[in-house]
Amino acid sequence: MAESGFPGFDIRLWVGVFARSGVPVERIRVIEQAIVRAMASKDMQDTLERQGITPLSMSGTDFGAFVTREIERWKPVVATFTK
């Protein structure tokens, strides 16, 4: 992309699991543990690898911070299309 005139271009597909506000912490932990187990399975790893996907796991806190950064990063782009 840099050769095409877009230096520093970095866009990645990411997928996350969200819960509504107020879900009990115990339930969130159960969901997080299930996701960790699923992502650790050989079948899941093989499936993702075949699709060219490199999984990256984050804690809920780290994911929240990541989403906040992504929102701030893309706000100017969205603003150019919503004027």
Please outline the helices and strands.
Layout: H1 25-40, H2 42-50, H3 60-81
Helix and strand content put the structural class at: mainly alpha
* Average predicted confidence as pLDDT: 90
Largest sheet: none
How widely separated are the two ends?
A: 27 Å
Tell me, briefly, the overall form: flat
- Low-confidence runs of at least 5 consecutive residues: none
- The helix count comes to 3
Query: How much helix, percentage-wise, in residues?
Result: 55-70%
Into how many domains do the coordinates divide?
A: 1
Question: Any key phrases for this structure?
Answer:
3 helices, 83 residues, 0% strand, mainly alpha, flat, single chain
Q: What does this 3D model show about the protein?
A:
- There is one protein chain.
- The chain has helices spanning 25-40, 42-50, 60-81.
- It has 83 residues and is mostly helical.
- It has one domain.
- Helices cover 57% and strands 0% of the residues.
- The radius of gyration is 17 Å and the shape is flat.
- The two termini are 27 Å apart.
In short:
This protein is 57% helix and 0% strand. The protein has three helices and no strands. The chain has helices at 25-40, 42-50, 60-81.
